[in-house]
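seq as requested:
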Amino acid sequence: ADLYCNYQLFPITSLLEHGSFMTIIASDLVKKSSGIYALPEIHNRLTRKLEDPSASNAQIADIVQLDAGLSASLLKIVNSAFYGFPSSISTISQAISIIGRTELADLVLGQSAMNVFSHLKISKKALNDHWHHSLLCGLVARQMAGTVENCEQSPESLFVAGLLHDIGKLVIWNELPDQSSQLIKNTGGASTDYLEAEQSEFGFGHTEVGAQLLNNWKLPEMLIAAARHHHSPHSAENFKQACQIVFIANEIAQTDKLDEAFFDWINSGKAAEQLGYDLQKMSDNLEIANSQFSEMSAMFSP
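struct tokens:
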């Protein structure tokens, strides 16, 4: 609350005109409780081991297996419709050999990030609704990776980008609960309206807060860019394709109806056209994502 009050000393119009100042205060919000929003040590150890070119799959698996719950979740995921492998994968080492080290690390990151927020003062319903939307967004983005010609990112990295795109909302909800609840009531949580309401109320939005959190976690620049630009892919200087994919996946994941009007609206900024993405591909990707959702939501849960 003190942080919120301090921001009100500055004219809101001035804040919105100065993106650098918006970045500063969003960063302050994250740093204010940086100890709360820390990734578990197992993720940090895994990252360091993956940076070692001499590390074996068995050594990487040993780190993952330090967390029995995480290991069990990962084995369920790699044996699910998410991958659709014809035979059962029984060990983490085998999973690494089949799906790859980087891909496994992406899944660990997704699960770890969700666990960070599982014990905060955010209501269980709000948290579940948030992750359900984010999971569907990630699943759609993952399917798009196989649809978009010359996709620059792996399906797993785009899955994580979709999963984490709105993570800044959780920081704001936790730090400024009363103001956030009122904004949700006023806007119905509609994405564009809600972002504009955040910026008017706080002087920053969840896009910048999310980018700052992922930057603090020292995550890949693509994930940071997708969090920052998932409402404005046209403004991304780097990783524009990934930002376009997450932008479209985010909108698909929260629409009630995929039709020509929706496609035309999505493409008003030319994102779909630049990706070579049409309405039929949207429908196909959403159908597959929905078919995976129930199984995956039971595994990716805070």
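Residues 1-21 have pLDDT under 50 and may be disordered.
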